[in-house]
Specification:
Elements lengths: L1 H21 L1 H43 L12 H10 L9 H9 L12 H13 L6 H11 L3
Helix pairs in contact: 1-2, 3-5, 5-6
Length: 151
């Protein structure tokens, strides 16, 4: 703590001397440089924290791809599935046949939750479709969920 206090006093002394000798503009430049250094340090800390999480995410994905077919359907990178994961893993829904899905998605206008379908139900349908290899959007999943809800 004493060393930090002494460094702080030295920085303040240097700042004051620069302002006296070179004017206010030099003091402003020093403050900007110090702020840039703080931002750089924060970015480095953030990067240091993110890399281990990215490595862990890759390891988990690799693990789930190698062990168990039911585990291979987990999409860690999908923000929608990440958000609703707690509710998704508890429930299952029966998705319609491929022909019905294609008919629903080929329509000119996608249905937008016209039956007041709960968002959690749409998330489950979204997950089930993704798990079955469909590359769909949230809007498309809403259309299919609207069709299947309370059938």
């Amino acid at each position: 703590m004493r060393e930090n206090f002494e460094r702080k006093k030295l920085r303040e002394f240097f700042h004051d001397e620069m302002v006296v000798k070179l004017g206010d503009r030099s003091g402003q430049l020093l403050k900007m440089k110090e702020q840039d250094l703080r931002i750089q340090r924060l970015e480095e800390m953030f990067t240091f924290m993110i890399h281990p999480l990215a490595i862990l995410d890759s390891l988990l994905i690799s693990f789930f791809r190698h062990y168990g077919s039911e585990l291979a359907n987990i999409y860690f990178g999908d923000p929608i599935i990440d958000l609703f994961w707690a509710g998704i893993k508890k429930e299952k829904v029966q998705i319609p046949s491929n022909e019905i899905i294609m008919r629903l998605l080929s329509g000119e206008e996608l249905l937008l939750n016209k039956k007041n379908v709960p968002i959690s139900y749409i998330a489950i349908v979204y997950y089930e479709l993704k798990s079955n290899g469909y590359k769909i959007s949230w809007k498309q999943a809403s259309t299919i969920a609207s069709y299947t809800y309370n059938l």
